[in-house]
Design a protein that fits this description.
mainly beta, 2 domains, seven-stranded mixed β-sheet, six-stranded mixed β-sheet, 4 helices, 28 strands, globular
Length: about 450
């Protein structure tokens, strides 16, 4: 009996020691310092009250603190784990102008972010660099990438993107470009040269010039489109939007495919009517075997396809890409932008795909999409100057859900949408995508 008691005591002591040595059971103090990426601006602008957030991607618990005058915060007593970290500060236009001498008519927003960061006993401090981005005139308002149920809905056929005039003046959609941005879609794929954050290292693409920063100054689309028009053919009123459909038809109703067969859905409530779209994608003229569902609505203008992935304007259903809107700089024809192969470890073949290199400086708006579950998240594609965060449809692919930009305020009946260059803050979702809807 005495031996049993002694064994039990030793067992308790052993397992207690094991628990004490388990780093997951320790709480830590995470110290974060925010500073401006521009040394010159750092000498002029305040770092007081930078809003710093940390989100535990496994528990979805979020905490926020405001920094001191040196840009420092300390999150005390947090659990080790994987965190999304972000920081933002908004400088009113008058203050920014008085401090920098640069005349601006809108508040200037600086963001920084670091996603999927492992925080533990040996990693208790982080530094963030605040970068300002463009506050867009054209905004990506809604992205319906998820599609609807593959059995009872329209699958991928009802996808669309909506672009919004967020100004108080008429703008023209003529020759506006939008693109779906590609990047590494798995942390475990070892095919590519990669950066410390897990993303592709485009600097190591074949024939990439050595005198540019291919990763931080450029992005690479897997699909690139241009709206038609000669200059002032497609006006968009203040507070109005344009809807670009994969196929501009009423997906709730049966229709005849290009093969002569009827295409229908079992549950029309899961999908949407896109017959009122402003533009549509039509791939059939240049594909040897187009989709039967890719029919042409003659009442809706077709967009120009510069680069594509697959057999239609097919957005990535899991949400592993990003979207941008841009216009050319007037100096270089977008169609003449250089193109490069993936930065693969093995040399690409002569027939390997190449991707346009889009300068960040021409981008008007950008939105990063990520999968709906933390375990499926992929390396971030867009830097903080384009999008410091990301958004997603909570129920994932084929859920009928879209992501939609929030309304910030209404002035004289015109909705002004939220635009902080951080999609985590700017976007919400709709349970059923709604062209020209609002949130």
């Amino acid at each position: 009996m005495r031996k049993l008691i002694l064994y039990s005591i030793c067992t308790i002591i052993f397992f207690s020691c094991k628990k004490i040595d388990n780093p997951e059971l320790h709480s830590i103090d995470l110290k974060i310092n925010s500073s401006y990426a521009s040394i010159d601006l750092g000498k002029k602008l305040s770092l007081n009250k930078v809003a710093v957030k940390i989100l535990n991607v496994n528990t979805n618990v979020e905490r926020e603190l405001l920094s001191d005058a040196d840009g420092n915060v300390s999150f005390n007593g947090i659990s080790p784990g994987v965190y999304d970290i972000s920081a933002t500060i908004t400088i009113p236009a008058t203050i920014y102008t008085s401090l920098t001498g640069e005349i601006v008519d809108k508040e200037v927003i600086f963001n920084a972010s670091d996603k999927n960061k492992v925080i533990g006993l040996t990693n208790t401090s982080q530094s963030l660099k605040l970068i300002s981005g463009n506050i867009g005139s054209w905004l990506i308002k809604q992205i319906y990438y998820a599609g609807s149920n593959t059995t009872t809905g329209a699958s991928f056929r009802d996808q669309f993107i909506e672009i919004y005039n967020n100004t108080d003046s008429i703008m023209y959609a003529d020759s506006l470009y939008f693109a779906e941005i590609i990047g590494r879609q798995s942390y475990t794929n070892t095919t590519y040269h990669t950066l410390p954050n897990g993303q592709m290292d485009w600097n190591k693409s074949l024939n990439m010039p050595s005198n540019i920063d291919a990763n931080n100054d450029y992005i690479y689309p897997r699909a690139l489109f241009m709206l038609p028009g000669k200059g002032k053919q497609y006006p968009v009123q203040p507070g109005a939007s344009i809807v670009i459909a994969q196929t501009a038809i009423n997906h709730k109703s049966p229709f005849t495919g290009t093969d002569g067969k009827t295409i229908t859905v079992r549950d029309p409530s899961l999908t949407i009517d896109l017959s009122g779209a402003d533009f549509e994608a039509y791939f059939a003229p240049f594909l040897p075997r187009p989709l039967a569902s890719d029919i042409d609505n003659p009442a809706v203008p077709n967009i120009e396809v510069l680069a594509y992935n697959g057999t239609d304007m097919l957005f990535d259903n899991p949400g592993r890409t990003a979207f941008i809107v841009f216009k050319g700089d007037g100096k270089t024809d977008v169609k003449k932008y250089p193109q490069f192969n993936y930065p693969t470890v093995s040399a690409p073949s002569s027939t390997s795909d190449k991707f346009y290199q889009i300068p960040n400086k021409v981008v008007i708006d950008a939105v990063e999409i990520q999968p709906n579950t933390a375990s499926a998240r992929v390396p971030k594609k867009l830097g903080a100057s384009l999008d410091a965060g990301y958004t997603f449809a909570p129920n994932g692919q084929y859920s009928s859900q879209s992501v939609i930009r929030k309304t910030e305020k209404t002035e004289n009946g015109r909705r002004i949408l939220k635009d902080t260059n951080n999609s985590t803050e700017d976007f919400d979702y709709l349970n059923l995508a709604a062209p020209r809807g609002f949130k």
